[in-house]
Amino acid sequence: MTYRVPNAESLEGGRVLELDHIAVAGETLEEAVDHIEARLGRVMWPGGRHTRFATHNALLGLDPQLYIEAIAIDPQAPPPPDARWFGLDRFRGAARLDKWICRVPDLDAALEALPMAGRKVALERGGLRWSMAVPLDGMLPFDGLFPALIQWHGDAPAPGYVLASDGHRLTRLTVAHPEAEALRALLLPHLDAPLVAFETAAEPGLRAEIQCGPDALSL
User: Which residues 6+ apart lie within 8 Å of 38 measured at CB?
Assistant: First the structure.
């Protein structure tokens, strides 16, 4: 399988935020996994633990070279020194599609252009190494619907390039928010993600449309 390195243009010179994956959050990992498996009719792969933020996850491949992450607080891990990422300290209610994550070729440059994304945190697990932009309070702007930014490091391909999709393809990711146009205007100069659409709506939320053969599914 060929690993396509993201466009390495500077943020000033081109659109370099590419959709990397989407995340379903739950009060427990079991709830997040059950939500995805019930909607898509597939069994998720075990992920692992994120010691830095005291969370754990499970993964599922998705075309085109994307993946779905189920994520929740790890009850067996000691609390982190500061807020957990993805706003998980404040997450309540039913498991739901809650975050979208964009990869960038240079996180430092991305944070110069989009400082509201947070501060750079270096992470690793197994053979994977990456940096993530995480706000100090864990809460991304626009009620959590600003994309989390990630930069993958090293030779190991990101999960979206190695996890089997079983024919499930993301056809659209809709970001709904009362200030959707403001979010769109902020991101559009940098965003290279044709599957992402913005929709003005009273309630913030994400909606993923997924095609598998003749079946139209959603998260």
Answer: none
Cα–Cα distance, 193 to 104 (Å, whole number): 12
Helix (H, G, I), strand (E, B) or coil at 50: strand
Strand-pair category, 196-200 with 18-25: unpaired
Reduced to 3 DSSP states, what percent helix, strand and coil does the chain have, rounded to the nearest 5? 20, 40, 40
Counting beta carbons within 10 angstroms of the beta carbon of residue 38, is it exposed (0 to 12), middle (13 to 18) or buried (19 or more)?
Answer: exposed
d(CA 109, CA 125): 24
pTM of the model: 0.91
pLDDT tens track for 12-67: 545 689 999 999 999 999 999 999 999 999 999 999 999 999 999 999 999 999 99
